[in-house]
Write a structure and sequence with these properties.
The structure holds two protein chains of two kinds. Helices cover about 25% and strands about 20% of the residues of chain A. Chain A is an alpha+beta fold. In chain A, β1 and β2 (about 10) form a beta hairpin. In chain B, the strands form four sheets. Chain B has a six-stranded antiparallel β-sheet. Classes of the chains: A alpha+beta, B alpha+beta.
């Protein structure tokens, strides 16, 4: 595979390098504001309905929600997930056969606290073997994310740490809430609206308190090598992608979404 | 761990890691195999009729899905303590039984092409331990006449980057095996169970006998390995009565199967 450098104004080689070191990377100004506003408008009632259903104490902690995103317009948007810079980046990191296997969200409501430090998904494929990236979260907030509204916190370069070197509770390692132990050096990811960021599922991260008056919405399209088991699709087997949307996608868009089940 | 139910697990694991396959001899009682074959023959025949003379694997060489029901799903086989100990050592305690199919050459089948099952290499340039294993048991003796398997030992770690798409161009066609390569014929006694790293290079051989050479194959993998069959087949299919009769560990191993009410 040839390695493109600049694609649509993004230096892909530098982004790939930074990702392989840090375990995350930000693509700034990738999504137009009016597009995000349209998404937020369509998203709000879906999110609110599911938040009501989940109640005050969902699994991620008080008022911290993961709401499934429908595989429908305007959320499934080729201007975002098929952006040529993103495609070029993902092909480098998880190969040209990569798939999008789910679509969900991270939403701290006002009144949330610190999340516990954690990693997502399978954190070790083979015991004691350090491997390159196999799964990423492709995430885009629908608003600016700040100290006030609960931006994400990440500990750079932790994606390669082996399970045997970590305690069961990562809070024991890093410190809980505001009480960092000082040995580790988390970074707060305050992002401008329009940014899209990508993280290796293994990089250690957590949500922070939202002390603003508004939910801090972020949508997440997880992507992986095609040999990873798609847990969500194992559990959610009903066709959910509208035929009309499917038919409107490019060949590559359909390739990335090929595991989603189309409904007539 | 060493010996479990008479099998030296450490030795079997070592041999598997070197060769890419290993045989558990005298593993299944003959009367159990006979009973399975009796129930299997009509299932196999019906599907063969459906597939016709030229299925995907070559003339009269069939892969028939095995129903997840008794007597095929049998804890005395897939939950045999020696097999569980082996699979836990090789794939970790969270392994899953993802799909169930078969290899059935009929009389008149030819040589299969040299191939590997599933994905040969997960990452460019990196070789990894086993992630996907075929646990297979023939329902008869397998031999030179009825199309026993041929395997190229220790080939599981060869990276896909180092091989062409067409493995026959390297290893040879039909009875001709290219000089530098040394496959072995796996003639198994009825009652044997063999375990194969999907990446080990292998092929079926001609069945010149009068009978089908039936072998059932349980696809077992690390929990993060995709099973395409499960992506494509999402209907509940696993009998609730059978599910309820299983041990906790058997249910854990089969946890990806979708249970239907009887």
């Amino acid at each position: 595979m040839t390695e493109p450098r600049a694609v649509a104004g993004y230096d892909i080689a530098a982004q790939v390098r930074d990702f392989r070191i840090n375990g995350f990377v930000v693509f700034e100004n990738l999504i137009a504001h009016d597009r995000l506003d349209r998404i937020l408008e369509a998203w709000r009632p879906i999110r609110e309905e599911d938040v009501k259903r989940q109640g005050e104490l969902p699994i991620r902690g008080r008022r911290r929600y993961n709401v499934r995103v429908p595989f429908e317009a305007p959320f499934v948007d080729e201007e975002i997930f098929e952006h040529p810079a993103l495609v070029a980046f993902l092909e480098q990191i998880i190969g040209p056969e990569y798939v999008c296997f789910a679509f969900d969200s991270n939403i701290p409501y006002p009144g949330t606290e610190y999340q516990t430090w954690h990693r997502d998904g399978y954190t070790e494929l083979f015991e004691d073997v350090i491997l390159p990236t196999y799964q990423v979260g492709v995430k885009f907030p629908l608003v600016d994310t700040t100290q006030e509204n609960g931006s994400i916190e990440v500990i750079p370069c932790t994606q390669y740490a082996l399970g045997r070197d970590l305690p069961d509770s990562l809070d024991d390692l890093v410190g809980s809430g505001q009480n960092g132990r000082g040995t580790y050096h988390p970074r707060r990811l305050n992002m401008n609206k329009g940014s899209l960021w990508i993280h290796d599922n293994r990089v250690i991260h957590r949500g922070t308190p939202n002390r603003s008056g508004e939910p801090r919405d972020e949508l997440c399209m997880p992507m992986s090598f095609p040999w990873m088991h798609p847990k969500w699709l194992q559990e959610e087997t009903a066709p959910q992608m509208p035929r009309q949307l499917w038919d409107s996608l490019s060949d590559h868009g359909r390739h990335v979404l090929r595991w989603q089940r189309v409904k007539d | 761990m060493a010996v479990v139910a008479g099998y030296d697990i450490d030795e079997l694991v070592r041999d598997f890691r070197v060769n890419g396959f290993v045989v558990f001899e005298a593993f299944i009682a003959h009367e159990k195999i006979d009973h399975i074959l009796q129930c299997w023959a009509p299932v196999r025949d019906a599907d063969i009729e459906n597939q016709g003379e030229f299925p995907g694997r070559g003339r009269v060489r069939y892969n028939v899905r095995v129903p997840f029901r008794a007597p095929f799903v049998d804890e005395e086989i897939f939950e045999h303590p020696a097999l569980v100990a082996f699979l836990e050592a090789e794939l970790g305690e969270e392994y899953v039984f993802s799909h169930f199919d078969s290899n059935v050459p009929l009389k008149g089948s030819g040589y299969q092409r040299w191939h590997r099952d599933g994905r040969a290499s997960l990452f460019p340039g990196i070789r990894t331990p086993a992630h996907d294993i075929g646990v297979k048991f023939p329902l008869c003796d397998t031999n030179e006449e009825n199309g026993s398997f041929e395997v190229l030992p220790a080939s599981q770690y060869v990276h896909a980057d180092d091989l062409p798409q067409d493995l026959n161009s390297v290893f040879g066609d039909g009875p001709e095996v290219n000089g530098p390569f040394h496959p072995v014929r796996l003639n198994l006694k009825k009652g044997s169970l063999w375990v194969q790293d999907g990446r080990a290079i292998h092929r079926g051989t001609p069945n010149r006998s009068e009978q089908p050479r039936d072998e059932l194959c349980m696809g077992i993998s690390r929990p993060w390995t995709v099973s395409n069959w499960q992506i494509e087949n999402t209907e509940p299919h696993f009998s609730k009565t059978l599910w309820d009769s299983l041990s906790d560990h058997a249910r854990q191993v089969l946890r990806w199967q979708r249970v239907k009410d009887d």
